[in-house]
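Our platform keeps sequence and structure together, in a single record for each protein. Such a record has a labelled line for the sequence and another for the backbone structure tokens. This encoding replaces a full spatial description with a residue-level series of whole-number codes. Below, we set out a record of this kind in full and without editing:
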Amino acid sequence: MAAAMTAAVWYGLLWPVAVGLVLALLARRRGGSAGDWLWPALTYLYAVVALQLALEARLPEHLNGEDLVFVGRVVSLPETRGGVHYGQAGINQIARLEGRVSAPRSRWPGRHRLRVSYWNPDPPLRAGEWIRARLRLHVPRGTYNEAGFDSERYFLAEGIDARATVRAVEARWGSGGLPGWRQAVSDRIAGHLAASPHGAAVVPALVVADRRGLPAALWDLFRDTGTAHLLAISGLHLTLVSGMVWWLARVLLGPLCQWLCGPLRRLPLALLAWPPAVAAAWGYAALAGFSLPTQRAALMISVLALAVCRRRPRPPLQILALALCVVLLRDPLAALSASLWLSFGAVLAILLIARTGGPWLWIGLPLMMGVISAVLFDSWHWTSPVANAVLVPLFSLLIVPLALSGALLDWPALSLGAATGVEGAVALMTVLARFTPGTPPLLTGVAAAALLLAVALATLRAWPWPRRMLPLLMVPWLWPQNTAPPPGQLRMTVFDVGQGQAVALRTHEHLVLYDTGPAWPGGSAGAGVLEPWLRRQRLRPSITVISHGDLDHAGGLRDLREPGLLLSGEPDRTVGAAPCQAGQSWTLDGVRFRFLWPRDRAWQGNDASCVLWVEAGPHRVLLTGDITHQVEYRLLNQVAPVTVLVLSHHGSGTGTSRAWVSRLQPRWAVASAGYGNRFGHPAPAVLERLEAAGVTVLRTDRAGMIEFQLGATDNAAPITRWRDDHGRPWHGPGGFW
């Protein structure tokens, strides 16, 4: 049933329901058990309906950018960040708001959860309070590439129906509740740990799942060492807390209850200790805001307690499966959450390895945790198993108990003890990250499954083949991916980076990057899109071209670890770059590259953009940066018809003149623009001009990442549109009725 619900929300297809019902009918006619097929089919249907209802609850596209009055409650701990808003520095507060549109309700009926952004709040939002605010709503759409974070899946899994910007708060009232209590506890802990920056950032995350104060650099350190799972309140933490409470209840509370109430003397102390243990598990889950891992752990503990009390013990794997099924029955979309599978995968690994015991518990478990973390967070290092082997016991046996005791007893000395452990852990991770010999290739799903299978098989007592054959399961991870184009051909990838531009030009043995996408407070396209893609492809750029210095083209460069030879149209705005100039040319693996512009250093801004001409076999590509009409007119005599034209300035009306289109006669034109951007790119006039010329326009805001295969002798150039060819139900319009 759990597998059926997982498949339903990941694919959203209806035909498996009919197959399951037919198989159930056949099984019944043959005297078998129809329930083996009937229940999975029904739960599959239930999950598909839940998926479609969630997709239809999202903000309709015709309301994107509209202002509506919303009444709701702040249900998260508001996060405060510094940033730049429309060119002005300020404070941005991020929170989740749950409520409904005030008027007119008919435009977007129902109750919804929003992720709101409140710039320069006065006063700041508080967790648990109610507000009436005028919001500018946006569709919960993000970028979609081969690698990197899938924000649309995240929004759907979290039940977020729209993004919003607070325009004005008209009224606010009330406060408190569970969110307000969590914020008060977090603020008190942060006050006690002001002298320990790392402790003040990590300890609230371990007590109340508050990661608001976690700096990006510290998060990257946990992620790169494969220990990011330690920042979540996991089932291991809940099990530890409930176990401690069970022991205390058996030793102290149980005898006291039996002394006060005679009938309880008939029950064993071990049985009386279970209700406080279950209550402690659910209490810790409430502290964490009932996140998915805590729900899973609390359910497992509850099922185990029920089985013990009824004197019907069940196998641990059956309890784990039952807890997973209950979590998915409550919310089928939880199957899209990385934290759910990290939590269940960790417990499954513990159960498998614990059967063997001995040294494998300390060797296999850290390795499994590192592999799972690598798949979910797209990053790891060779030292990940070492870091997990040391830090998992440190956090579980020392830091978490001290942090919880200090928070519940309001004893700063205990909180400082937990903070001291955190400082030591961060120091160890820093050393491991510094002396890592190199970043290993990114784990794909197949490679991760093979590694996990190798560890699981190694833990078996009875193994029919020699254990020295287990390293063969590492081949899918170490084997290089044969995705390079043949010599003389070119693979061109236009990344979906929102309102910006980033293009990869791959030859047989080299890679040229043209622009690196935008940057924003706390991140960039270089860190979120390019680096994960480069690790997945096992590539490093030979040459990186920054067309000009604007942030939407050069912002990702700061997070690009090895840019190779750096060229720029505005080298004075790009640190370490040499100027690109008309006439410069080179050949890589039979593919020819040549700069057509700028001719000299007198040009500034958009018109200083490097214009790159690429030839691969019979195909030609032209990348134009942000040049305007006046540069296009100067280049008319230097260009010829092209196969692919990357539109200048994201398709703005300042470029792509009629004469330019007539001269180039492109077969395809690519507009790299953000969905619903406030500039209106690509401009309607440009689209009409291209359509009249018979040019096929591809847009990253609609197609996601776009990939061309160029250079073959035939006239066709295979094109991959990531949303169309690799999209999931949440990457397109939802609904099948």
About this structure: The chain is about 45% helix and 20% strand. The CA atoms of residues 83 and 521 lie 5 Å apart.
